Amino acid sequence: VQLQASGGGLMEAGGSLRLTCAASGLTFRSYVMSWFRQAPGKERESVARLSRSGGSPYYADSVKGRFTISRDDAKNTVDLQMDSLKPEDTAIYYCAARRRDAYTYNYWGQGTQVTVSS
Questions:
Q1: Other residues' Cβ atoms within 10 Å of the Cβ of residue 93
Q2: Residues 45, 36: contact at Cβ < 8 Å?
Q3: Is 43 exposed, middle or buried (0-12, 13-18, 19+ CB in 10 A)?
Q4: Rounded distance, CA 40 to CA 7, Å?
C-alpha cells in the first residue's frame, strides 16, 4: 500500500493550495481518508476526514470554512483544498487511511510541506 501526497509549497497568507493524496494497493472506497498535520514542536493533529464519497466531512475547528476535503473513489485520490491560508497553517501535511472497522490508521503517506508566509 502506498499513499503519495503532493501539492505542498510556499504560499502567502490569504492564498490557496490544493493537496492531493494518491492511494494504491488498497480497496480505496473501503477506507476512511483523512488529512493530518504536524507543525514544528507541536503534536500531530487531525485536519479533515471523509468516510465516503458524498458523506459528511469532519473538519478541525481551526480550518472550518477554509479547507475542503474531497475524494474520488474512481481515481483513488483524496484532496484537501486549502483557502484563506494563515501562517499558523504551516506544517507537514499527511494523508492517512483507516479501514472503517478500525480504530487506528492503517496507512500513512510521506507528508508534504506547506509553508504560509505572513
A1: 23
A2: yes
A3: exposed
A4: 19
